[in-house]
Amino acid sequence: MGFNCGIVGLPNVGKSTLFNALTSTAAAQAANYPFCTIEPNVGRVAVPDGRMEKLATVAKSAKLIPTQLEFVDIAGLVRGASRGEGLGNQFLANIREVDAIVHVLRCFEDGDITHVEGSVDPVRDAETIETELMLADLDSLERRVTQTQKKAKGGDKEAKAQLEVMEPVLAALQSGKPARAVPFEAEQRQILRTLGLLTSKPVLYACNVEEAAAATGNAFSDKVAAMAQAQGAAHVVISAAIEAEVSQLTDEAERQEFLETLGLSETGLARVIRAGYELLHLITFFTVGPKETHAWTLPKGLKAPQAAGVIHTDFERGFIRAETISYDDYIACGGEAGAKEAGKMRLEGKEYVVADGDVFHFLFNV
User: Fold this and answer.
1) What is the mean pLDDT of residues 159-165?
2) E strands of 29-146, at which residues?
């Protein structure tokens, strides 16, 4: 079960620098000219979670396996992309494949790094990309609505259900609002996802600031924060330049000391990863033992058999029940045996909705 965030933005805003730091590789070429990222680069990163170390200490686990999130570095977009300008068609095709969007916005002045629009204005830049995505969605949906209306008039029930989603989304796009701004019930949201609309994807704004503003942000990032709040979107402040330096430090103590000198308690990347995880409405459950403490990813709201299926399809198919201990109880009781003695281990069945931090032992029969 893969989950990925596409890193997007105008050229020269720090996308590839951020991606390189995220994955601690030089897979994406970071250079001061547009379209240096020609093919989308993909990297998987561990999701920071301090609970793992505590679980592993209690269980005396030999190794830790964190849950992961995938990031995709996508070629820079320019005004007119919806009409194929620059690498527009490729950009739009690549972004359709991701689950969520991390939109990197340049929030720093630097005369040595050219800006494709000629000046620094992150809100304008965000609107430029959002407009191109809405235009692409509008073009796609207008053609599809006409076809779907014909089917609905012919009595096609599926087409009628699709129209109930398509028509309000089309109206929103025509009035300059993204598809995600339209409220839907759960069943209709599922239909919305099948339409593959670019503006239906959740967005995280990453404000790339200068080193001095990494801890506090600046006037540019403050404007982005206000915009994000108005949209109900998320935002984080990050300095891609700092993250690039941090990624080169292999010693954890040295890394922490470097961050502290800058007034930071953790890397901006840790915040981006966690925010991306939350953006996708994901939770973490654990399997714990002497061999390993393993973190697993699951969308919120799914049930115990589906969690078992993340580990192996046989576990879901033959699911019987799940021996379940909450993270807090596992730590407080000193592990599985202590939790059992204290009556904190629960036997959960097929209808149990998984909670973040659950420690599971699945019983199954195939």
Assistant:
1) 92
2) 41-46, 63-65, 68-73, 100-106
